[in-house]
Write a structure and sequence with these properties.
Blueprint: H1 19-31, H2 42-64, H3 70-84, H4 86-94, H5 99-108, E1 111-112, H6 113-133, H7 138-157, E2 160-161
Parallel strand pairs: 1-2
Helix pairs in contact: 2-3, 3-4, 6-7
Length: about 180
């Protein structure tokens, strides 16, 4: 008689988790401060650094071109550098151009009001100029307007921080942010 031995294993579903479930779980882990540790395998760390530089280039392009959003690529670059090279991650957070925005995002989870208004004004000005001076056919103009609408909705969906909020502490400092000063009546 041939008997098979079975191992008591937890029952799992045959279906893989959906992309939305995976993204939601990853977002909850990241927003609660449970970041994955930096990669120890040098090959995978190199790939993370390459992805970080690529994202940083896209963020720099996004500063100039209105159709490419800069902030999501900057946040992605920060995450990739964190996983691949903590030294480059620290350099990015110390930079004059990107450091304050990244520190605000990590500490307060938002973008300052003045920066948000400047971004929207720049996008609108560049798109209006390109619509007036370009020779795009009507369907090209509608495609550009649709992409700009997506970009502007992303900008407006990010939480807004008041400009009077104190600067976020540099990375590595613990403790809560100081309360903003209120004007005396």
């Amino acid at each position: 008689m041939n008997r098979r031995r079975t191992i008591d294993a937890p029952q799992t579903s045959d279906r893989a988790p959906s992309a939305s479930t995976w993204i939601r779980d990853a977002w909850q882990r990241l927003s609660s401060g449970q970041w994955p540790r930096p990669e120890r395998n040098p090959i995978i760390a190199f790939l993370w650094v390459c992805a970080g530089w690529f994202s940083l280039v896209l963020a720099a392009v996004g500063v100039v071109l209105p159709l490419v959003p800069a902030t999501p690529f900057l946040l992605l670059a920060s995450y990739c550098f964190y996983r691949g090279s903590p030294r480059i991650h620290a350099w990015l957070h110390r930079s004059r151009q990107f450091g304050p925005m990244l520190q605000d995002w990590e500490h307060y989870r938002g973008i300052r009001r003045g920066l948000k208004f400047r971004a929207v004004a720049l996008v609108v000005a560049v798109v209006l100029a390109s619509m007036l001076f370009s020779q795009l056919p009507w369907y090209g103009r509608y495609a550009v307007l649709a992409l700009v609408a997506v970009g502007l909705s992303v900008i407006w969906m990010v939480p807004t921080l008041p400009d009077g909020l104190p600067p976020a502490p540099p990375p590595g400092q613990s403790g809560a942010a100081p309360e903003p000063r209120r004007a005396a009546r």
